[in-house]
Design brief:
By secondary structure, the protein is of the alpha/beta class. The chain has helices spanning 4-8, 13-19, 54-62, 84-92, 107-113, 167-188, 192-203; strands at residues 31-32, 39-47, 68-72, 80-82, 97-104, 117-122, 134-135, 139-141, 144-146, 151-155, 158-162. It has a single domain, classed as Ribonuclease E inhibitor RraA/RraA-like (Glucose Oxidase, domain 1, 3-Layer(bba) Sandwich). The longest helix is centred in the C-terminal third of the chain and has 22 residues, at 167-188. It is elongated.
């Protein structure tokens, strides 16, 4: 039997957003490095001062395999909190992916790692190491509150946060939304006539 996190994997974030009534999606600037990247798993939260990555390193060490590291980097984009070496550590520690409300660097090196990274911006400047940061606390990432254990789902459209208390309800609503969308596609998007029938039904 698959875990509920696994059941969310590959489900479109757009359908999940519809199930959540358009809330809990991160800022649209936070996108995957590669359009093919997908994640769905438990949030391991990290709160760091702008441009400091000590907490990121601590999070990579403490997170469990399969977790998604979610970093509140304060949206700061002048210094990267992770480059290809740090991302490589996360991969080798068994994390599923990283979401950073902040900057990364070493873009080509990270692409070569074949590891999902969602981020706000890239820069050339390295991080500093001045403060330990906080682990497994409620954070704000991309304008959304994220608590430890919330489910994070990401794809080419962006990142969405599913509160852990509502995960089963959201999953069922998402599956129903996908089924409804598929039925609409099969009914209306097959010819000019059916497309026109749909347009008339919603516009007239």
């Amino acid at each position: 039997m698959s875990s509920i996190e696994e059941k969310f994997y590959g489900l479109p974030t757009t359908a999940i957003s519809d199930a959540l009534k358009g809330i809990n999606h991160m800022d649209s600037a936070i996108k995957p490095l590669r359009d093919s990247d997908k994640i769905a798993g438990r949030a391991f939260t990290v709160n760091v001062p702008a441009g400091d990555n000590t907490g990121v390193l601590r999070g990579i060490r403490e997170a469990k395999p399969g977790d998604i590291l979610v970093v509140d980097g304060k949206g700061f984009t002048n210094r990267a909190v992770a480059g290809d070496f740090v991302i490589g550590l996360a991969k080798n520690m068994g994390l599923q992916g990283i979401v950073i409300d902040g900057a990364i660097r070493d873009i080509q090196g990270i692409r070569d790692l074949d590891f999902p990274v969602f981020f706000r911006a890239s820069t050339v400047a390295a991080s500093v190491k001045a403060a330990p940061g906080e682990l497994q606390v409620t954070i704000s990432s991309g304008g959304v509150s994220v608590s430890p254990g919330d489910i994070i789902v990401g794809d080419a459209d962006g990142v969405i946060v599913i509160p852990k208390a509502n995960k089963e309800e959201v999953l069922q609503s998402t599956l129903k939304k996908i089924e409804k969308d598929n039925e609409r596609e099969e009914k209306y998007n097959v010819s000019r006539e059916t497309a026109l029938a749909y347009l008339n039904s919603v516009l007239d």
